[in-house]
Every structure is written in structure tokens, then in C-alpha cells.
Amino acid sequence: MEKVVLRGYIYVTGKDLEAVRGALPEHVELTLAEPGCLIFQVTEDPHQAGLFSVYEAFDSPESFQAHQNRVQASYWGKITVDVRRDYEIKGLDTGKSNSVRSVTHDETHGATSRSAG
Q1: Burial of 4 (0-12, 13-18, 19+ CB in 10 A)
Q2: SS3 10
Q3: What is the C-alpha to C-alpha distance for residues 59 and 103, in angstroms, rounded to an integer?
């Protein structure tokens, strides 16, 4: 099985920023406890408020999808529904070997993603 790696950024503005900052420690703790989670890091840029670097790795597409499902139903999912996302995801089967999927805005919440490369 190929592991899934997601890296990129979330951009949080306005009223959502304090809620995201407050909920982030629990979100990280819950994610790290998920079966198949290898790495999960979300770090706010010290020079640009609201810009968070995201890096996560799961041992399989199934564990990655289970994480996505949990997040969508969680408090984190509710407070980040309008957050802009810019992700690249490697390891999901899109019919290409070594697939890379570029994901923007709310595509991790069920919309169709685009394949790149």
C-alpha cells in the first residue's frame, strides 16, 4: 500500500482565526491518535497571521479517507468549513502512478479535486 502525503497551507481570516487557534491543539491530538496517522503538523506562520502550514502523512488511502471523514463531522470541520485550502496530495489513486492531486479551497470537504502531474 502506498502512503498518502498531504502538504500545503490553510488561510484563516477574520472571525475564524481565534476559533482555529483555540481548536488546533485538540485537532492535532485527535488526528495523531487515529489509526494510520504517521505525521500530522499544522503550524501558523510567525510572520503572517492566519497562514498555517499543513503536513500530514497516513499509511494508506483508507486511513487518509477515515481521517477526512472524521474531520468533516468534527468541531474542527465546522469551524474551518470556509477556510481557504491549498494542498497537494500524493498517494491517492487517480489512475496515474505516483499521483499528485492539487486541492484548493473546500475540495477536501467532498467536492471533486483536480489531478496534476
Answers
A1: buried
A2: strand
A3: 20
Cell of 112: 471533486
Q: Please report, for residues 9, 29, 76, 112, the alpha-carbon distance to residue 25 in angstroms, rounded to integers and kept in the order given.
A: 17, 6, 11, 29
Residue 103: the pLDDT is 58
**Residue written as cell 503536513?**
55
Give the closest residue to 36 by CA, choosing from 10, 7, 56.
56
**Cα–Cα dist 102/108, whole Å:** 10
pLDDT tens-digit series, residues 73-114: 999 999 999 899 999 999 987 544 344 445 554 454 443 333
Show the DSSP H helices in the chain as ranges: 16-32, 61-72, 75-79
Query: pTM of the entire structure?
Result: 0.79
Distance, in Å, from the CA atom of 113 to the CA atom of 27, rounded to the nearest integer, reads 23
- 81 CB-near residues (< 8 Å, 6+ apart): 106, 109
